[in-house]
User: Which sequence fits this backbone?
């Protein structure tokens, strides 16, 4: 048998993550997106913009607020595009990482183009033929779908991820987290990391895939609703 | 919420472990050790909660101190409320004093009296009539109106008696909103679309987009118009 040691360390420091990202000041953001202070504060109240994106730093005018540039611009674009069709509360629900109590039939998932047929067949072999799937299961399937689709994992590894998610994802429910799929010397493994944390591995460890589960949930909710 | 839930009533002096209730009425002196989740909370007198409070409607006549977060649709206060955590509410109306150690989120916030908020005061509509010194770290929202209460004659007499000091205004670092009207406010930065300053303001920097009006007794160090791009 193989004997593989995995070395990694996790730093729980928010600032490290923030240092890597490009930041945008509140003033620049408002100029760029043409929204007003009132709108920004309203969206914050409705939890459309997560608290941890507001980064306070001291400047010569006192404390100023900055945002992770890419993420906030993406989020504001989403809010602006969807505002006409749904209420702010519904939108907040869609954007939050909480799992909704949603159930969908198998056929619908294929019809809506959320999950491919082969992934669903794989799931049927593993877990039997339930007619309806709840949101949690749909999420697992779409994670697998993503990984199968990119050709980064095989079916055996799919099994590993599925059992892993079944057992450990409920602990991370409603939190921002990332799924890491790792490989070292041909041995594969996976882990869940809550965000915003930084994780570093020793060099021979290869991070095959990094999936942001909150983003995935967001996408799924928009597709499903 | 289910309808057939128990009611909790404390008259005189008593304590409870908290829990889920339909209505909670405290007349006299009450102490709740734990989280409270109810449809209606009424305090007449004094109440101390060692936990979070979640209620559709809250009415306080007297004194209420909460060691956790307070979350409600509607809050009416006559007297004093202290919240150690965050306060989030749709509509709040207070007469008296409110102090929040965390952040305060409200769609509509009207107040007569004084307040102290350690974090951010974020409100859709904010109407403050100050009777005493008040402070918040930051204020943000759509409509922000800060006035100092008291009739004109009365303030003049007060000025004669105490020409220096007598600080009853609002102190804050940053105020940001769409429509802003301020009186007796000390702030480092005020940013907004339309800004109007009344008497007694002392502001270091103003950044406005459409309109800026200033009372002759308002002191502003610098102001600039931000062009709309």
Assistant:
């Amino acid at each position: 048998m193989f004997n593989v040691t995995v070395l990694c360390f996790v730093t729980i420091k928010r600032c490290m993550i923030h240092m890597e990202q490009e930041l945008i000041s509140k003033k620049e953001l408002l100029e760029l997106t043409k929204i007003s202070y009132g709108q920004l504060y309203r969206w914050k109240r409705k939890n459309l913009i997560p608290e941890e994106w507001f980064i306070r730093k001291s400047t010569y005018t006192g404390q100023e607020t900055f945002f992770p540039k890419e993420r906030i611009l993406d989020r504001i674009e989403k809010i602006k595009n969807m505002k006409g069709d749904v209420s702010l509360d519904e939108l907040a629900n869609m954007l939050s990482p909480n799992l909704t109590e949603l159930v969908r039939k198998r056929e619908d998932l294929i019809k809506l183009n959320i999950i491919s047929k082969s992934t669903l067949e794989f799931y049927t072999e593993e877990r039997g033929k339930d007619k309806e799937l709840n949101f949690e299961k749909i999420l697992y399937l779409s994670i697998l779908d993503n990984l199968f689709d990119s050709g980064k994992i095989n079916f055996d590894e799919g099994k590993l991820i599925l059992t892993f998610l079944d057992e450990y994802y409920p602990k991370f429910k409603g939190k921002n987290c990332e799924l890491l799929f790792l490989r070292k010397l041909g041995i594969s493994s996976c882990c869940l990391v809550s965000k915003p944390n930084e994780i570093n591995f020793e060099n021979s460890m290869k991070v095959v895939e990094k999936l942001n589960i909150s983003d995935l949930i967001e996408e799924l909710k928009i597709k499903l609703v | 919420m289910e309808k057939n839930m128990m009611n909790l009533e404390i008259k005189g002096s008593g304590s409870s472990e908290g829990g889920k209730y339909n209505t909670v009425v405290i007349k006299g002196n009450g102490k709740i050790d734990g989280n409270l989740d109810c449809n209606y909370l009424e305090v007449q007198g004094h109440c101390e909660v060692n936990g979070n409070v979640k209620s559709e409607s809250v009415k306080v006549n007297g004194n209420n101190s909460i060691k956790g977060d307070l979350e409600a649709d509607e809050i009416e206060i006559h007297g004093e409320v202290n919240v150690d955590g965050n306060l989030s509410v749709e509509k709040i109306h207070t007469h008296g004093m409110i102090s929040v150690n965390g952040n305060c989120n409200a769609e509509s916030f009207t107040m007569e009296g004084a307040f102290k908020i350690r974090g951010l005061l974020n409100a859709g509509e904010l109407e403050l009539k100050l009777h005493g010194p008040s402070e918040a770290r930051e204020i943000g929202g759509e409509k922000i109106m800060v006035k100092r209460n008291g009739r004109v004659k009365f303030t003049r007499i007060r000025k004669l008696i105490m020409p220096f000091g007598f600080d009853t205004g609002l102190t804050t670092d940053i105020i940001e909103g769409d429509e802003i009207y301020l009186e007796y406010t000390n702030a480092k930065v005020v940013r907004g679309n339309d800004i109007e300053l009344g008497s007694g303001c002392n502001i270091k920097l103003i950044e406005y987009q459409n309109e800026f009006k200033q009372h002759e007794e308002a002191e502003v160090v610098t102001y600039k118009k931000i062009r709309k791009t």
Remarks:
- The first strand of chain A starts at residue 8 and ends at 11.
